[in-house]
Automatic annotation (TrEMBL):
Segments traversing the membrane: 590-614, 626-648, 660-684, 704-722, 749-772, 784-804, 816-839
Domain G-protein coupled receptors family 3 profile: 590-854
Origin species: Astatotilapia calliptera
Protein name per the record: G-protein coupled receptors family 3 profile domain-containing protein
Entry annotated with the keyword Ligase: no
GO molecular function: G protein-coupled receptor activity
InterPro entries on file: ANF_lig-bd_rcpt, GPCR_3, GPCR_3_9-Cys_dom, GPCR_3_9-Cys_sf, GPCR_3_C, GPCR_3_Ca_sens_rcpt-rel, GPCR_3_CS, GPCR_3_vmron_rcpt_2
Compartments reported by the entry: Cell membrane
GO cellular-component term (any): plasma membrane
Topology in the lipid bilayer: Multi-pass membrane protein
Source taxon at top rank: Eukaryota
Length: 856
């Protein structure tokens, strides 16, 4: 597309470089008008090199400019950059681009048989000058010699700009021509809008990640009262908007927001008075330099600066004179890289090698304070131009940890790799119409492969997402005093945007030196926390971080105090909420004692069962109904083991099993004892003449009695679980300082029903055994059943008041103890006498002796 097509548009935005000179005859032909197309103004590049494909670089080699007098009475001179504001750091970036292009041209594997050329311009860190650079970029290799009124621009891509405001202007000028642009330092979040910036890419992270990192930093160090200063451009405006968005919902308040004017004004800058100890700054080094110098004149110290990536690694601030004011600065810097040949390459640039280059001359004047040109009108003393580099020239020669320069380096290689992929296209597999490829002798700017480019450089993967952004990484930089007294940039952490939210920030706090040479984190609050006995009173019209501490009055309403959450309680001074202690019947000393007792009881029961089984054919086992004895021993084993369910943290299943298993096993045990009691009573009464009731208590009838009595308890438990089953609960009301984990019974009626049914069975068994206690026989089992039921009832009658009055986990301990005590009572009363005869008195283990009929 021809540049003349856009002349009306460019005229309205103030960047017209070509015009038609009208002749005196307004009606002259178009042909004669075309012959007088002349160059009205020029903007020559600082460095130029020919090549098969041309890329442009735009760098802020100066960070101030002289505005011409536009009074419309004479032709205004062109805008000039102020030589006293030369930036050696940006000059290093431009030389990095030249080095990268030379490396690509020397690489036999990358772009074989093709070369890259370049045009490098100075934007003066100002949008209007950036516009002129963009227009000059489009006009060809040399403005004086190129056919500007016909032909297409040979430009392939643009590397730039540094500031976001300048990049917005340049990107919009390049957009109609579909010329891609890769920025090395423009981090504004606004560029993610692909509808406005479809050809914009960058090798620096999006500011959305930076403001997220800064917000996390402020919250981490509890800086609740901070100031925010920004530059007068899109970068600063979008960054502050993003930071305010990230700080919503946090404890951080912004004390003020101030702006450094674009056309710097000392009086306006001094009005930005720091009311906060911590100040966040989104600005470029060019704007910060005069701003900070004016603050240094006012001798303002003790400010903890939080720097954005735009100036956190600016070498211009590394001098000794800056440390008292900027020492301790913390900020997020671009990830550093490594460029092996850069240091040697920078040392080859000198006025003798480039005698006609004004930028090299200005570099020498800035570094050495002398003028290498004899014809110069400069007031500086003359020098040879072959001076050796000095250590204090770190703004230009510091290549130990290149960051922005490394971004420029990656941008050049991204263009080279994308062009290489385009030129290596095979016909029939291309991305264009009919799977065609681009013509190598006529590559159009829109035929770039940048969106899909992916390569490895110095071990780092470089690619772009759908919005043109690169992978977000930041180094956390701390400004510390070096051995020579200068400021050194020390890496104290990392922000990795690829990690999950909340885990991106990794900081080595013990390595940080804060403002004022302090090792402790500075405090920045609007109001200090109120002491005990006082309350906060928010100041009207001020942020919530600003308040007064008012003494508490005696009649202060409790509604003005803050209640602790349910799981917390106040400390002794009533100044903070502390977590309550969680308590349940755990496997501590009490829990272990109950567990051991339960296991010992179960083992004893199993031993008795083994003894009975081994001696199952002896008289004492057979006379006392061996089948019912085995049933009772089995039930007692379960009774001992069910107490284990009461130990440990209550869960859904343990709560349902506790009372149901306990009630069913005890009901089974008492049902067996009841059946045995009925058999004993029937056996002794059946010996009387005319009575024969044993036929009603045979083995089948006994099993039916046990099953029926147990089934009633099973039905009650089933109804309990269906209607309102027990569940785990957190009791926070019994004791203020504790949370008692317990099992709520769900239905109190069902709980007392199961206990009542067991009690009813025990009472019935006790009455029947008591009636049969004086029946004849040396081994009347009714006596032992009477004693066992007496102990059983005594234990559980004592259990009820003890259970109700026991606090916390002791309630479960009381119930577990009652289960074990009653089980041991049944085991010893029913089976200890029998085991004594079986094991120690085998001569009494006869039917005659047991019936009292042995011969004397």
């Amino acid at each position: 597309m021809h540049l003349l097509t856009f002349l009306p548009l460019l005229y309205h935005v103030g960047i017209l470089t070509l015009v038609y000179i009208q002749t005196s005859n307004f009606t002259s032909s178009a042909t004669s008008a075309g012959k007088v197309c002349i160059l009205q103004n020029s903007f020559e590049p600082g460095f130029i090199a020919e090549g098969d494909y041309i890329i442009a670089g735009i760098f802020p080699l100066h960070y101030n400019q002289e505005m011409p007098d536009l009074n419309c009475t004479y032709k205004p001179p062109p805008v000039k950059c102020n030589g006293h504001r030369f930036d050696p750091r940006a000059f290093r970036w431009a030389q990095t681009m030249r080095l990268a292009v030379e490396e690509v041209n020397q690489n036999l594997e990358l772009l074989p048989n093709y070369t890259l050329g370049y045009k490098i311009f100075d934007s003066c860190a100002y949008p209007l000058t950036g516009q002129r650079a963009a227009m000059a970029v489009l006009n060809g290799m040399s403005e004086d010699d190129s056919p500007m009124c016909s032909g297409a621009s040979p430009l392939l891509a643009v590397i730039g700009e540094s500031g976001s405001a300048q990049s917005i202007v340049v990107s919009r000028i390049l957009q109609p021509f579909q010329i891609p642009m890769i920025s090395y330092f423009s981090s504004c979040a606004c560029f993610t809008d692909r509808t406005k910036y479809p050809t914009f890419f960058r090798v620096i992270p999006n500011d959305d990640y930076q403001v997220k990192a800064i917000a996390q930093l402020l919250v981490r160090f509890n800086w609740t009262w901070v100031g925010v200063v920004r530059g007068d451009h899109e970068y600063g405006r979008f960054a502050v908007q993003g930071l305010m968005r990230e700080l919503q919902g946090t404890s951080v308040c912004v004390a003020y927001q101030e702006m450094i004017p674009l056309l710097y004004n000392q009086q306006r800058a001094l009005e930005i008075i720091s009311l906060a100890r911590v100040v966040v700054v989104f600005s470029a080094e060019g704007e910060m330099t005069p701003f900070l110098r004016d603050y240094m004149k006012q001798n303002i110290t003790g400010i903890q600066w939080v720097a954005s990536e735009a100036w956190v690694t600016a070498s211009v601030f590394t001098g000794k004179e800056y440390y008292p004011y900027l020492g301790g600065t913390v900020g997020f810097g671009i990830r550093k890289g490594y460029i092996s040949r850069l240091s040697n390459y920078l040392e080859t640039v000198n006025p003798q090698r480039y005698p006609n280059n004004m930028l090299v001359k200005e570099l020498w004047e800035a570094l050495y304070g002398c003028s290498p040109s004899l014809s110069s009108a400069s007031q500086l003393p003359p020098c040879s131009g072959q001076e050796s580099p000095l250590k204090q020239h770190s703004a230009y020669l510091n290549t130990s940890s290149p960051r922005v320069a490394y971004n420029v380096y990656k941008a050049v290689y991204a263009i080279a790799h994308s062009l290489h992929n385009l030129l290596m296209c095979q016909p029939g597999s291309g991305p264009f119409k009919n799977q065609s490829c681009a013509q190598s002798d006529n590559v159009l700017p829109w035929q770039y492969y940048l969106q899909e480019v992916k390569f490895i450089i110095a071990g780092e993967e470089v690619n772009f997402d759908l919005k043109g952004d690169s992978i977000p990484y930041y180094d956390i930089i701390n400004w510390q005093r070096g051995t020579s007294g200068n400021i050194e940039f020390v890496n104290v952490g990392l922000f990795d945007g690829t990690k999950p939210a909340g885990e991106e920030l990794v900081i080595q706090e013990d390595m940080i030196m804060w403002a004022g040479d302090q090792s402790e984190v500075p405090v920045s609050v609007c109001s200090a926390s109120c002491l005990p006995g006082s309350r906060k009173a928010v100041r009207r019209g001020e942020p919530v971080c600003c308040f007064d501490c008012v003494p508490l009055s005696l009649n202060l309403s409790i509604t003005k105090c803050t209640f602790c959450p349910e799981d917390f309680w106040s400390n002794k001074d009533r100044t903070a909420c502390i977590a309550k202690k969680v308590e349940f019947l755990a496997y501590d000393s009490l829990g272990i004692a109950l567990t051991v007792t339960s296991v010992v009881g179960a083992c004893l029961t199993i031993v008795v069962l083994a003894v009975f089984f081994y001696h199952r054919n002896t008289a004492i086992v057979r006379i006392n109904n061996s089948e019912l004895s085995f049933f009772i021993l089995f039930a007692l084993t379960l009774c001992f083991l069910c107490s284990l369910v009461f130990i440990g943290e209550p869960t859904f299943w343990s709560c349902m099993l506790r009372h149901t298993v306990f009630s069913i096993t005890f009901s089974l045990c008492i049902s067996c004892i009841l059946g045995k009691t009925l058999v004993v009573l029937a056996a002794f009464t059946a010996t009387r003449p005319g009575e024969n009731i044993m036929k009603w208590l045979g083995p089948k009838q006994q099993r039916a009695i046990i099953f029926s009595c147990t089934l009633v308890q099973v039905v009650i438990c089933g109804a309990w679980l269906i209607d309102a089953h027990p569940y785990p609960s957190r009791n926070t009301k019994y004791e203020r300082s504790k949370i008692i984990l317990e099992c709520s019974v769900g239905s109190s009626l069902a709980f007392w029903c199961v206990l009542g049914y067991i009690g009813l069975q025990a009472c019935l068994c006790f009455v029947l055994a008591f009636l049969a206690r004086k029946l004849p026989g040396n081994f009347n089992e009714a006596k032992f059943i009477t004693f066992s039921m007496l102990i059983f009832c005594a234990v559980w009658l004592a259990f009820i008041p003890a259970y109700i009055s026991s606090p916390g986990n002791y309630a479960d301990a009381v119930e577990s103890f009652a289960i074990l005590a009653s089980s041991f009572g049944l085991l010893f009363c029913l089976f200890a006498p029998k085991c004594y005869i079986i094991l120690l008195k085998p001569e009494k283990n006869t039917k005659q002796h047991l019936m009292g009929k042995e011969k004397k």
